[in-house]
Amino acid sequence: MLGGIDYVVHLAASPSVPRSVRSPVKSHRANVDATLLLLDGARCAEVKRVVCASPSSVYGDSPSLPKHEGMPLNPRSPYALQKLIGEQYMRLYFDLYGLETVSLRFFNVFGPRQDPGSPCSGVISLFVDALNNSRQPTMYGDGEQTREFTYVSDVVAGVVSASTASSVAGRVMNLAPGCRVSLNSLFLTLRGIIGVTVDPLRDVPREGDVRDSQADNSLARELLGFDAKVSLDEGLRRTVEWYRASHTERVS
User: Fold this and answer.
1) Number of separate domains in the chain
2) Which domain holds residue 116?
């Protein structure tokens, strides 16, 4: 199936932390077994390079910020552990078979076309969908947990660079702007952009979620020339504009 293909970008996963907590074996098959099958297929087809997406959740809940690639890892959910195993398989296939691999750790990718109806949807698309319909979105915990968000076009640029850059085979890199924001602050920004005064519903923290996350992106800047072009505020505005246009088209 991979014959004649030079570069493979592996983005497929079962990315829901709560789902992995409920069904760890099923999640393992999707996130570990499928990655191994892809790598072996790429090896047999003599693919030049495989670039794989990995989550920031592999770092776990260490209080050290920002998260850098050399720090100890402590995944707190089956999903995070499974993706870490995928990273290790990527490195093993480079060391053992010479298949060039690059693992990119994503930090909350967002932007147009993210489906708020998906059980794996990111928090921004859920907030946008609720606020645009004057509904109260659910916020888990006190809202002071922090996250880093990366606009989708910046991720695409990083993936393209990782596919062809020299001296990166076998490496793992964070791919993110390098700044964080609390969910409360994110919510207020979105509420201002959309122009509503809805408050969130509060619920207990979800199992497996980390408290704070922020990337050290110095390695990606050095090896890939990575530089995030779209600020969080601009990305939020673009996402809201897309949602409104898309929703209007569906209704009409």
Assistant:
1) 1
2) 7-247
Whether residue 252 lies inside any domain: the answer is no
Do 139 and 183 touch, CB atoms closer than 8 A? yes
CA atoms of 130 and 244, how far apart (whole Å): 12
Q: How far apart are CA 78 and CA 201, in angstroms?
A: 27
How far is residue 223's CA from residue 169's CA, in Å, rounded to a whole number?
11
Q: Which is catalytic among the residues 79, 89, 93, 151?
A: 79
Residue 151's H or E segment, with its range, is: strand 150-151
Instruction: Assign 75 to helix, strand or coil.
Output: coil
- Cβ(19)–Cβ(70) below 8 Å: no
Closest CA to 158 of 212, 234, 217, 242: 217
Q: Indicate whether this model's pTM tops 0.85.
A: yes
Residue 38 domain-assigned (yes or no): yes
| Digit-coded pLDDT (tens) for 169-224 | 999 999 999 999 999 999 999 999 999 999 999 999 887 778 889 999 999 999 99
137-181 per-position pLDDT tens digit: 999 999 999 999 999 999 999 999 999 999 999 999 999 999 999
Q: Classify 103 as helix, strand or coil.
A: strand
> Is 239 domain-assigned?
yes
Q: How many Å apart are CA 115 and CA 126, to the nearest integer?
A: 8
CA separation for the pair 132, 141 (Å, rounded): 23
* Integer Cα distance of 76 and 210 in angstroms: 8
Q: Which residue has the tokens 């946008």?
A: 128
> Would residue 151 show up in a list of annotated catalytic residues for this protein?
no
DSSP category for residue 50: E
Can you give the length of the chain in residues?
252
Evaluate whether residue 1 is within a structural domain: no
CATH code, domain with 84: 3.40.50.720
